[in-house]
Amino acid sequence: MATVDIAAAGTADSAPAAPPRRRGSGLITSATWLIGVFFFFPVAWMVITAFKHEADATTDPPRLIFEPTLEQFRNLFDAGAGPYFLNSLMATGVSTLLVLALAVPAAYALAIRPVKRTQDVLFFFISTKMLPVVAVIVPIYVIAGRVNMLDNVWTLIVLYTAMNLPIAVWMMRSFLQEIPREVLEASEMDGATLRQTLTQVLLPMVAPGLAATALICVIFSWNEFFFAVNLTASTAATVPLFLVGFMTSEGLFWAQMAAAATLASLPVVLAGWAAQKQLVRGLSMGAIK
Amino acid sequence: MSTDVAISPATAAPPGRPPTDATAAARRERWKRRAPLLPALIFAIIATQIPFLVTVWYSLNSWNLVRPGSERFVGLSNYADVFADRVFREAALNTIVITGGCVVVSMIFGIALAVLLDRQFFGRSVVRTMIITPFLIMPVASALLWKTTMFDPLFGLVNFALSPFGVETFDWTSSAPVFSIVTALVWQWTPFMTLLVLAGLQSQGKDVLEAGQVDGAGPVRMFRSITLPHLRRYIELGVLLGAIYVVNTFDQIYIMTQGGPGTASANLPFYIYQRAFLGFDVGQAAAMGVVVVIGTIVVATLALRLLFRTFAEEN
């Protein structure tokens, strides 16, 4: 007994400088982990449910032990998910390319060789982002109907381009401003044209910024629902509309729904995980580095 | 007056000669600078300003889409109807409650999480990754999940977790629709706030904190008098940008409650959608849209000032 006591006292004594702190920090670390897991839990539950048979998905109490299956993912494509994903891919991909093609030169004009009234132009771009979309949906619907562009993926492409353009201009401007002036002056000195300066000098230097901008555009257009639900029907419908199909049959097909939700979210989740650093800058329109 | 006269000959091209090569070159130079900007500018004007002007025009007309030829000019009477509409006022109130609730709560969570994440600890990047994930989940997908797997009265996890407290079959999305929507929104937007505040914490000068420690300030004191003032700009930015996005919330309401029961949880975007696409009342919907834009301008002006201030400080 005595030896044990001494040993215990010894360890308690040898550490006192650090331990109170360290024990507290261990507690905080555990708490942080717990909160993180709690926060992530709905996502985990979605993925778990996606691997269930329907009978295991709606039980009381909820079931954690079950026989996993890929049945739901296979069924998705039998249920015709393919075209929705293709439409989303098309709308997201093409609109992102268009945004970059328009935003990079504009950001160049605003950052490198500022035009007059640069502030006003920036103000204008960002104010279009703050215009609530409900305020323009009615005329867009009527005009698209008149020119036979309802339920057409190109309508979405144009709208997603307009939706992301202001963010992209602001972001690219903030990235371009970081480029040292001397580099550009040197390239001009050598007699490079604007196009050469853009493609051969600037673009390689802002490639990370370009990737970050593209990521933000992809997130917003892949997840976009309001325009899609109002302007498309069967041929141009995107992934969020495929998910909406589960609203009517809710309660019966939770596992199927969870599989669809998982698959629908996967591209953006993976991209976002890979580019966490750029996410902050994109979300603050480039204001925070 | 006399100074004007004195200055003009010096700045303008010398009189008596036709516009010189110099001014033509200057003009060319100006256009060369503007040219890269124009495609984006023109596109943005066509795609956003023209539809908005058309909205303003529609708002002055009475027009129902299902009755062709019903279009006629009625002046401001749509606006009078909008302000007399009880549901519109309720939807405006819901918009404020949902936006305010979501932004404030997720900012408080965001600050707490950011402080927790701003330490070195085992698995930090894993925890951060878990915490940002809700923001990346497709909003339609997360709304579906909250409505079913979380809030379902019979099989939902929320009632299961609360069953020790006597909650058995509470129907969250119909008995507490606004609360359910705000919950799903807070879950989605907390990562946004966390990331912004975390960026603020990490930009904090270490020397100031060390000085505080040397002066014997405790952690709470340090947080209140050093960290919070430094974070202020980041918090303001998060609140304003968050508000601009959350005001437009549509997905969660469409999926979780359809604005119901009745119109209890409809916000303005959802109510306008109902009037336009279920009621086909173009004039009324357009007038509401214009009113929303005017309301948004107030918040947006504040946000813009802040963005410019932030940029000015960064550069």
From TrEMBL, chain A:
Biological source species: Phytoactinopolyspora halotolerans
Membrane topology: Multi-pass membrane protein
Biased composition (Low complexity): 7-16
Chief location of this protein within or outside the cell: membrane
The protein's name: Carbohydrate ABC transporter permease
Keyword annotations of the record: Cell membrane, Membrane, Transmembrane, Transmembrane helix, Transport
Transmembrane segments: 31-51, 84-110, 122-144, 156-176, 197-221, 253-275
Annotated ABC transmembrane type-1 domain residues: 85-275
Key word Ubl conjugation present: no
Keyword Transmembrane helix among record annotations: yes
GO cellular component: plasma membrane
Family: Belongs to the binding-protein-dependent transport system permease family.
Region of interest called Disordered, as start-end residue ranges on this chain: 1-23
Subcellular location: Cell membrane
Gene Ontology biological-process annotations: transmembrane transport
TrEMBL record, chain B:
Annotated stretches, region: Disordered: 1-24
GO cellular component, one term: plasma membrane
Keywords for this protein: Cell membrane, Membrane, Transmembrane, Transmembrane helix, Transport
Transmembrane segments: 37-60, 96-117, 129-146, 178-201, 234-255, 285-308
Subcellular location: Cell membrane
Domain called ABC transmembrane type-1: residue spans: 92-303
A Pfam family that the UniProt record links to this protein: BPD_transp_1
Membrane association type: Multi-pass membrane protein
Signal peptide: none
Composition-biased stretches (Low complexity): 9-24
GO biological process terms, semicolon-separated: transmembrane transport
Family: Belongs to the binding-protein-dependent transport system permease family.
This protein's name: Sugar ABC transporter permease
Organism field: Phytoactinopolyspora halotolerans
